Amino acid sequence: MKTERQAMIVSLIKNNVVSTQEELGEALKNQGIMVTQATLSRDIKELGLIKTPTLDGGYRYALPQDRTPADVMRRAQRMLEDAVVAVDAAENILVIKTMSGSAQGVAAAFDDLEWPEVVGTVAGDNTIIAVIRSKELTGTVMERLRQLRG
Fold first, then answer.
1. Count of CA atoms in the C-beta half-sphere (13 A) of 108
2. Which of 2, 22, 58, 135 has its CA 20 to 30 A from that of 88?
């Protein structure tokens, strides 16, 4: 699944020096995720990965340091469209159901939005719990999520 794969890519490049697409593909394979070169290229583009210099004169993949709000919004929208199955509320808690294996990637994209109404999220395999500051704000956040999902 795309969101799981992209979340794994982010984790791999944050925790390891990955210099080439081939190295990234091999690292994914070692995690049990098979991917073609074309898919990996698309993932790199969608995630906005950049190559930064290393101390030994080489380069490594990294996340862009200065993502624009529009970049963050586009990624969140794409993740919500691709992986969210349902959203429900109970008082000041949102329960967001996702495709299996997608919750952590969706929660990360949701957290990146840095909406002031959202205290934080906790993600499992296919469920996200989002804590909203008050029950009065829950409807506002749900509506914004609906708009992002299209």
1. 13
2. 2
pLDDT tens figures, 13-26: 989 999 999 999 99
Q: What is the pLDDT of residues 98-115, one digit of tens each?
A: 999 888 889 988 998 999
Rounded to two decimals, the pTM is 0.61
55-71 as b/e, with b when 16 or more CB fall inside 10 Å? eeeeebbbeeeeeeeee
DSSP calls for 89-142: EETTEEEEEESTT-HHHHHHHHHHT--TTEEEEEE-SSEEEEEES-HHHHHHHH
Give the span between the Cα atoms of 128 and 105, in whole angstroms. 10
What structural domains and CATH numbers belong to the chain? 2-62 (1.10.10.10), 69-149 (3.30.1360.40)
CA 144 centroid distance within chain: 18
Which amino acid is present at 33? I
Helix (H) or strand (E) holding 44, with range, is helix 37-47
Q: Which of 105, 101, 117, 59 is nearest to 79 (CA)?
A: 105
